[in-house]
Design brief:
three-stranded mixed beta sheet, 14 strands, seven-stranded parallel beta sheet, globular, 17% strand, binds ligand A2R, alpha/beta, 318 residues
Length: 318
């Protein structure tokens, strides 16, 4: 059985990815969180910036496959130093530790770097973003992902590391933290349903068009890459290829509730650098893997709303 290391294993996607890989792989996880709730994962808490910790983990475990998810992932984070430290220096640390272990052995794992559609930013054709579209990141998070995305490419060229770069577009689902638009709406609706005296739902900009995937479809895409042969340094978009206005997301969520709610714009929820349209082209990835998204957006929204209504432990398998 191959061993897979997931960095950022205790995060939103890391939870789903660990769970989905367990049926076929031995899963080792690492993250800052002191413990991981999935007891079937061998879990090693630690900081991606701690080289000694990472070197020991990699040389002891020698995972054949590594998914690098650990990151400061809040797209609106203004702490540029911390974002770059974790997302860029953390990625360098990981690759240098792997190279350190490779110096003494013939260790050469398959590495999947989880980038982001945010790298494209103010790109040239935002309704049909391909892997060749120019990168014009607009936020610190996006710039840090663009830097670590291109850095990953450079490690394939200069050090011959076997890294594939995956660029997931907006994804959501049960368990995603507040601050992102879907859990933000869903958590408010769930709270308002319980409170007979309140009915005001606060929203930000409802105009942007985004390419949405369910986190479980994203994880099935990640799973689809493991056993294939890839050209190191290649990038792949993981997306639906369809644009959905945030307004439509709100409408669908409102229909899923029996309570009549009043929608009110909250200026504090408006973001300065919201790109109006952002839709990916997934043909390169679909042709290489046969993967396709299976979960309709309405199902994702219903499951997310139910999650906030009950706050029960995650049901990870769709
Ligand atoms: O920031 P925290 O405390 O929530 O922990 C996050 C963790 N992380 C770290 N792990 C080790 N050393 C660090 N210095 C460090 N800083 C942060 O990475 C969190 O548990 C995990 C990332 O998970 P999420 O924030 O839930 O992100 P999500 O949505 O699972 O995205 C996964 C990947 C990220 O690389 C995104 O940039 C990419 O997908 O699109």
């Amino acid at each position: 059985m191959q061993k897979v290391l997931i960095t950022g294993a205790a995060g939103f996607v890391g939870h789903y990815l660990s769970d989905s890989l367990l049926e076929k792989y031995r899963v080792v996880g690492t993250d800052m969180a002191p413990e991981n709730k999935n007891s079937k994962v061998s879990y090693f808490p630690g900081n991606i910036l701690d080289k000694k910790f990472l070197t020991e983990l990699i040389s002891d475990e020698k995972p054949e496959v590594i998914f690098h998810l650990a990151a400061k992932s809040q797209t609106w984070d203004r702490n540029v130093e911390e974002v770059f430290n974790v997302n860029v220096l953390g990625t360098i640390n990981l690759y240098e530790c792997i190279l350190g272990v490779r110096r003494d052995t013939d260790y050469n794992p398959k590495i999947f770097f989880i980038s982001s559609s945010e790298v494209y930013g103010n790109t040239s054709d935002p309704k049909n973003i391909t892997e060749d579209s120019p990168l014009f990141p607009t936020k610190f998070y996006s710039a840090s992902k663009a830097a670590s995305d291109r850095l990953s490419y450079s490690f394939t060229q200069s050090e011959k590391l076997d890294i594939l770069i995956l660029r997931p577009f907006t994804h959501t689902g049960p368990g995603q933290g507040k601050g992102f638009v879907v859990p933000d709406f869903a958590s408010q609706i769930a709270e308002l349903e319980k409170d007979p005296n309140k009915s005001e739902l606060l929203v930000g900009n409802l105009e942007p068009i985004r390419d949405y995937l369910d986190v479980r479809d994203v994880v099935s895409a990640y799973k689809a890459v493991i056993d294939k042969d890839w050209t190191p340094g290649e990038s792949y978009n993981i997306c639906s290829g369809k644009g959905v206005k945030i307004d439509e997301i709100l409408e669908t969520l409102l229909k899923l509730s029996d309570k009549k709610l009043n929608v009110k714009e909250d200026p504090s929820k408006l973001r300065v650098s919201d790109t109006p349209v952002y839709v990916g082209n997934n043909q390169k990835f679909v042709k290489s893997t046969g993967w396709e998204p299976k979960i309709p957006l309405e199902q994702t929204l219903k499951d997310t709303l139910d999650f906030w209504r009950t706050k029960e432990p995650l049901h990870l398998t769709p």
